[in-house]
Amino acid sequence: MAKMILSVDGGGIRGAAVTQFLTHVENQLQKEHKLSVRDCVDFYAGTSTGSIIALALATTDLTIAQINDLYNPDTAKEIFTENKVFPGIGSLGLETPKYEAGGKTKVLQTNFGSARINNVPQDKHVLAVTYGISQRQPQIIKSTKAVDRELFASAVADASSAAPTYFPTKELEIAEQDHWLIDGGVIANNPTMCAIAESRKVWHGTAMNDFRVLSIGTGYCTRKVNGPSSQKWGAIQWFTEGHILDILTDEMVVAYQAITIMKPGSYIRVNAEMRQQPGLPNPPDDAMDDVSASNISKLKKMGDWWFEQYGESVVQLLRDTYSGPSLDRINPATGTPMKHQPE
């Protein structure tokens, strides 16, 4: 039987574009086919803000409209509560995390309630990518692993979104052992390959050609890094001017791997550069923590634009009726998705 994977990247507040896009997809599925995104997806995967979205879909009763509403200015400001310990340089995330942990933890606990990983429906699965700093290795928390199934979904989302320099490390007890976890974006900001690998292991009797993948990014950063100046930079300059975390969490290699190994027409990558282009005259700021009302509005308009470009194809992919080519991110020269041509 064919299996559908939904994978969502990390990107902080830029997840607003994803939830806006999925809201449109959900509305069209319900209106035209009396289906929901949940009816169509077998495996959910997320990193950081993507894990919040994936876990909300997989383990809670929150509607997609309610998940979308989490990305509003008031809630965002509660999540991104500035750390007051070290004013000035501390606000840059150099001497202490830029933001306090309490706001994000409270929002997640309030909205996820008592949901645990084992609340995922029967024969469906979810994974969230984190990184264990004590063990110095990826920590993929997943419903296919017995010791992970009793974990609270809110705590897992909290750990997966604990971006270094932005939020404090998250302590999580797994199998009676303490794990210190940070944002999985440091090793797999795009969790698509993790999802494909785990899905293949779970449904080992399903042929590779029977898997379909909807992979959604959170916008591609395009701000320039000054090459000549970078030759003289140390740690502080790489963080403040080189935006090193954006470089480390680049998702394009995984996107290339996924579109290459998937059967033509079974993969759609929804993403775009966050710069002015046809269809996106007023692009959002690419910062993961720009929670101004104006920027969130721009992010949601980017999600509207994504639906205009990908919506019908994505609905068909979810319903297993899509017959077009695999689609990649939007070409900024044309404002339309790139069609993958296998070599």
Automatic annotation (TrEMBL):
Q: Which GO terms describe its biological process?
A: lipid catabolic process
Q: Where is the PNPLA domain?
A: 6-196
User: What are the GO MF terms of this UniProt record?
Assistant: monoacylglycerol lipase activity; phospholipase activity
Q: Which CDD domains match?
A: Pat17_PNPLA8_PNPLA9_like
Write down what this protein is called.
Patatin-like phospholipase
Q: Where do the catalytic residues lie?
A: S48, D183
> Has the keyword Isomerase been applied to this entry?
no
Sequence motif: DGA/G, positions: 183-185
| Matching InterPro entries | Acyl_Trfase/lysoPLipase (IPR016035), PNPLA_dom (IPR002641)
Keyword terms, alphabetized? Hydrolase, Lipid degradation, Lipid metabolism
**What family, per the record?**
Belongs to the patatin family.
Q: Which organism is it from?
A: Vibrio quintilis
Motif residue range(s): GXGXXG = 10-15
